Amino acid sequence: MTNILLTIILLLSISISHQVDTIVLKERVAKTGSMLPTIPINAKLLVDEAYYAAKNPRRFDIVEVRRSFSNPGSSERSMDVVVRVIGLPGELIALRRGSIYINGRKIKEPFGVRQCPSKIDEMFPCGQMSAMKIPTGEYFMLADNRPESEDSRLWSPRTVPKSAVLGKVIKVEMPSAAVQQALGADSL
């Protein structure tokens, strides 16, 4: 009887341990206004770096990604940025007059964004982008502060592989007004 009871307990503990997700939490600070108005400068972010180990990013998730680049005269080769997942693998995405079109259909963004100016700027195509197909296993990212941010509209390549998605932002702690003022970010 004791052996049967021990076997049942062992099987239950194995079953429970397989159902518990691994969580790897890292604290970050929003250093730029790229995600304004959603995430203010100096907000503390909690990023779950294991969140996408067994699942894929979903549209509108706020994520931290590693962008690789090469700038002449700079030793930096990558930068971690916080952006929002907009386009998913295999989708056709376009931007027209500040609106996002996925597979030819305009999508509604259920959160606040800083809109692009109505005048089209050839040097910074804020709200305009010709249709492009997102490659398999890759994602198209936009920041919420569209007129003042670099994201998939300007990156080369424009999309981010899942392997470069470092984690999902699961908590945002807003900085106090005193902290904002002391750090000179109260004018934004």
Task: Describe the structure in your own words.
This protein has 188 residues and is α+β, with helices and mostly antiparallel strands. It has a single domain (24-182), classed as Ribbon (Umud Fragment, subunit A), CATH 2.10.109.10. The chain is built from 2 helices and 11 strands, in the order αβββββββββββα. The chain has a 7-stranded antiparallel β-sheet, with no helix packed on it. β6 (99-102) and β7 form a beta hairpin. The longest helix has 18 residues, at 2-19. The protein is globular. The model is unreliable at 15-20 (pLDDT under 50).
In short:
The chain is of the alpha+beta class. The protein has one domain (24-182): Umud Fragment, subunit A. The chain has helices at residues 2-19, 177-182, and strands spanning 25-29, 44-48, 62-68, 78-87, 92-96, 99-102, 105-106, 129-133, 138-142, 160-161, 165-173.
Strand and helix map with partners:
Elements: H1 2-19, E1 25-29, E2 44-48, E3 62-68, E4 78-87, E5 92-96, E6 99-102, E7 105-106, E8 129-133, E9 138-142, E10 160-161, E11 165-173, H2 177-182
Antiparallel strand pairs: 1-2, 2-11, 3-4, 3-11, 4-9, 5-6, 5-8, 6-7, 9-10
What sequence of helices (H) and strands (E) makes up the elements?
A: HEEEEEEEEEEEH
Strand order of the largest sheet: 1-2-11-3-4-9-10
Which word captures the global form?
globular
CATH topology: Umud Fragment, subunit A
Extended strand count: 11
**Count the helices. How many?**
2
**What is the average of the pLDDT values?**
84
* Proportion in β-strands: 25-35%
